[in-house]
Design goal:
Blueprint (H helix, E strand, L loop, with lengths): L15 H32 L4
């Protein structure tokens, strides 16, 4: 899969397989970060409600 015509889009330099792998890592990181933020907000809310 080293064919330059197999790359996606303009200047992405990723093959479809690389793009799927990057997307999987990106979404996993995003969901993990969001989960940590939700837990942190919940804990702060339990400690000191702001509404």
């Amino acid at each position: 899969m080293n064919d330059p015509d197999d790359r996606l889009g303009l200047r992405t330099y990723l093959t479809p397989e690389e793009a799927k792998e990057f997307h999987k890592l990106f979404m996993g990181s995003f969901i993990g970060f969001t989960a940590v933020a939700v837990v942190a907000h919940f804990l702060v809310w339990m400690w000191k409600p702001w509404l």
